[in-house]
Each structure stands twice: as structure tokens, then as C-alpha cells.
Amino acid sequence: MASTDTQAPSAAGPAGKNAGPAADRAGTNPGDAAGDLAGLEAGLDALDSTVVARQPWLRTAASKALPPLVAVAIVLALWQLAYHFALKPHYLLPSPVDVARSLQDKWLEGTLLGFVWTSVSRGALGFLASVVIGTALGLVVARVRVVRAAIGPILSGLQSLPSVAWVPAAIIWFGLSDATIYAVVLLGAVPSIANGLVAGVDQISPLYLRAGRTIGATGLAGVRHVLLPAALPGYISGLKQGWAFSWRSLMAAELIVNAPDLGTGLGQLLEQGREFQDMSWVLAAILLILIVGIGIELLIFAPIERRVLRSRGLLVKS
């Protein structure tokens, strides 16, 4: 009995030593473990993120505006040099000052904003109609295999077809009317928007779609709450390309479809400059078309795209 009593502590000693860390681990506070895990996650996030000091808005605006202004200045300088050394006769290649004077004349006549508004309003209305049609068509093509097999290649072919090719057919169908212009815009923009949405849907992880069906997001609810939000980056790219195609299609239609009842847009203004053989007028119209296209891209589509990409972690502020 004595020997048994003396051996019990010695046997329990190592066991007690080994059990000590286990007991400590078992007695660890769950709140401390959660805090350690949160600290670890915060550290990993800090490694992935870049600390950016907030700069004054004036310096930020200057850093963004300076590169394109320098590029424009270089183009104007090269243009002026070409005019100075008469690479082309001056009536064929006017100087930047001559083009600016032509714009000033239109402004003083009070007609310049009317030309711009006519084209912008046509482009906006045609683009909105293209968004409605292209979105519905893209969803059907993306989700119905038979429809994709039937018209998917046709959409890609229509997207590569020059918009000006539709103008003669539209004139025969609708005559010299606004319907002709809008038909050309729709035929130019709808395939791009539909293909952009199809590409966005194809990039969605199947896990998201299964999760949506699990929580009951099916039919129109699934499209609204799961499909379109998940496909938004590709959809936004399709919208940008659709606007570019609609603006180009509009200019092609306005160049050819010219009637007194239609009003005068930038395309008609460009054609009038050609008829009068006024190269300053022609270059001024081209410059206005370029400014409107770039302005809408920078003021509308670029901020939307940045916000969507940043919300998904695909774009980091720098």
C-alpha cells in the first residue's frame, strides 16, 4: 500500500505536467482567440492595402488634367508647324487659329449649341432604346442555349459590321426621316450591349447562381438581384462600347441623311462644310464630335466604371 502511495504522485506528476498546457488551452478565453484572429486578419489586410495620404483636391485635379493638356499642346504645336511649313496648301490645312475662329463665328451666330444639342439628344435617345433592347436580348442569349447557338454568331457579326452600311437600307425602309437615323443607331449599338452582357454573365461563378437559387432568387428576382449585379463589370464595358458605336452610327447617319425637316446636327454640319469646301468648318465640326464623345465618356461612363470596379475590389485607389 505504501509503495502504491509513493508511486501515485510520481505517475501523476508527468501526467500533470503534460496536462498543464492542455488544461491551459482548454481554459483559454474564446474572446481572446477571436481577438487574435481579428488581429491576424487586420494584419493581412494591411499587407494587401496601400496607405495613401490624402492630397489637396487642387493637386489631385492638376495631376489628372496635366497629362492630357500636355498631349493636346503637343498636337497643336505639331499642327501649327505643319501649317507654318505649308505641308499642305493653307486652304486644305488651316491653322488652329483659323479653326478656332470658325467655332467662334458659329458661337456668335447662336447656332453652335443647337448643333451640339441636336446630335446629343438623338444619341441619348437612341442609346437608351439600345440599352433596353440590348439588355433583354443579351439576357436571353446568355441564359438560353438554343438562342445562343442560333443568333450568338449573328450578334458578333453585326458588331463588326460598319454602321454606315445600314444607312442605304434604312433610307429605303424609312425615307429621309428621324426613323432612319434611329434605326442606324440601334443597329450599331444593340449588338455591342448584348455581347457585353453575355460576356459578363459568362464570367459569373456558378456558385453565385446556385446560392441565388437556394435563397429563392429565381426568375426576374434572380436576374435583378443576382445575375445583373454579378455581371455588372462586363455589362458596363458593353455599355461603354455601345455608346461609342451609337455615337459613330449617329454621325454616319447624319452625314448621309440630310433634309431640312430633320434639323442640323454635327454630322450635317460636317457635310455642309464639305459642300462649301471650307476646311476650317470641317475641322471645327470634327473637333466638336471628338469633344462630345470624349466628354460623355469621361463624365458619365468612366466614373460609373471606377465605382463598380472599386466596389468589387478590382480597382485600388492610388
List the helices and strands and how they pair.
Elements: H1 2-26, H2 30-48, H3 57-84, H4 96-109, H5 112-143, H6 145-160, H7 166-174, H8 178-202, H9 206-214, H10 219-230, H11 232-256, H12 266-275, H13 279-311
Helix pairs in contact: 4-13, 5-6, 5-8, 5-11, 6-8, 7-8, 8-11, 9-10, 11-12, 11-13, 12-13
Describe this structure in words.
By secondary structure, the chain is mostly helical. 81% of the residues lie in helices and 0% in strands. The protein has 13 helices and no strands. The chain has helices at residues 2-26, 30-48, 57-84, 96-109, 112-143, 145-160, 166-174, 178-202, 206-214, 219-230, 232-256, 266-275, 279-311. It is globular, with a radius of gyration of 32 Å. The relative contact order is 0.09.
Brief sketch in words of this structure:
Helix content is 81%, strand content 0%. It contains 13 helices and no strands.
Overall shape: it is: globular
Sheet with the most strands? none
Order of helices and strands: HHHHHHHHHHHHH
**Low-confidence segments, ≥5 residues, pLDDT <50?**
1-28
Q: Looking at the chains present, what oligomeric state does this protein adopt?
A: single chain
Number of strands: 0
Summing up helix and strand content along with how strands pair, one would put the structural category as: mainly alpha
Helix share, percent = over 70%
The residue-averaged pLDDT reads 78
Number of helices: 13
Query: How large, in whole angstroms, is the Cα Rg?
Result: 32 Å
How much of the residues is beta strand, in percent? under 5%
